[in-house]
Design a protein that fits this description.
There is one protein chain. The protein is of the alpha/beta class. It has a single domain, classed as Alpha-Beta Barrel (TIM Barrel), CATH 3.20.20.80. Strands 11-10-9-5-4-14-13-12 form an eight-stranded parallel sheet. A hairpin with a 2-residue loop joins β2 and β3. The radius of gyration is 20 Å and the shape is globular. The two termini are 28 Å apart. It binds 2-acetamido-2-deoxy-beta-D-glucopyranose (2 copies). The site of one 2-acetamido-2-deoxy-beta-D-glucopyranose has 5 residues, from α8. One of its GO terms (cellular component) is extracellular region.
Length: 399
Amino acid sequence: LNLFLTRCIPGTGTVTAPPTSTVSSTTTKSTSTVSTPPPVVTGFVKTNGQKFELNGADYTLVGLNSYWVGLMNLSPAAMVSAFGDMAAAGATTSRTWAFDEVTSDPGIAYYQIWNGATPTVNTGANGLENFDNVVAAAKANGIRLIVTLTNNWSDYGGSDVYVTQILGAGQPHDFFYSNAKVVAAYKNYVETFVKRYVNEPTILAWELMNEPRCAGSSSSASANCTPATITSWATEMSAFIKSIDSNHLVSVGDEGFFNLPGNANFLYAGGMGVDNVALTAIDTIDFGTFHMYPFSWAQTADPLGFGDDWIANHTVLVQKAFNKPVILEEFGVLESQLDQVTAYSEWYNDVITDGLAGDLIWQAGSTSVTNANDGDMVFPGTSVYTLVTQHAAALKKRG
Ligand SMILES: *C1O[C@H](CO)[C@@H](O)[C@H](O)[C@H]1NC(C)=O
Ligand SMILES: *[C@@H]1O[C@H](CO)[C@@H](O)[C@H](O)[C@H]1NC(C)=O
């Protein structure tokens, strides 16, 4: 999703103090307390045909996105509480951002800082140690994470920062995928992140990029960018991750556009530089992803019906065609656009009856991060939260 959010600034509203200690999920169980022991998180999630699997049993991938959890300077306790709300809704999985590219120290959490063309990964308390807290908080609630390593959009820096810092201002957005120096810099970032958590079962998957496209929000595409550009980049990057981490799944994070030139609907015609079929077919990509925003994508004539087709098309043309799981990784409408309970009920039902592997709604709400609310946060106590809870149970039952 294009977040249109401003970076959260220290001292404004809902930001809490930077974490000073890490969450302990291994607190010894005192025999004199009645507290429930933390869920045990062992084994790596794998795929088996069109399903996910954990320690030989079905793993139901269902839950909510929470891009903000490592970016908002939450205390470890607030992180635990946010994932606790998701777990209470029956979520098994959440998806979060593991990037924030800056050119000067913002005084709050960030993950990589650039001095000219030289990036430095922030390994300190407001960098990777903060992400350690994210992982520990998820683990304490038995939630597994899909971890996204950069952004197509310019929120939290994203790929345009690499291109601008290394190649200068005004270069095409897609040089992120094709320029050797830029690719090397991204690989370096990925390597640092991945190696830190190679043996961590809380990570469900590494994801290459949130919503890659040829063009950027503040930068255009070069004439040379085609779906082959992004597919070739995803092939190289996913193989690289597999070469340093054989434990974890890898996904792309694309919106799921089809590359059927001439199709009357632009979402199916390849124009954005994305070929979801080719991306999911890559050997080192373990499962497919797609997103669904009928209103942002001009599918306003019949938004519900568009969603029905979009889900069916990805189940048939991608999941079944390649015998790999595919997930509806983001979806949402604003209540002002369409009644959310009506829309989500219909699409959740599609996921279950079509046989799609899983889904993650955009996005989890938390009482501690109201400044990350882009209009479709799901808060405990609402009718949408109840629906999410019912759906998680129904998907687990379907298997
Ligand atoms: C990513 O996707 C689309 C492609 O055009 C674009 O509109 C959006 O603004 C993109 N990205 C960036 C860098 O913001
Ligand atoms: C997408 O699904 C709809 C409904 O099943 C179908 O009519 C349409 O032909 C599908 N599109 C493609 C490209 O297969």
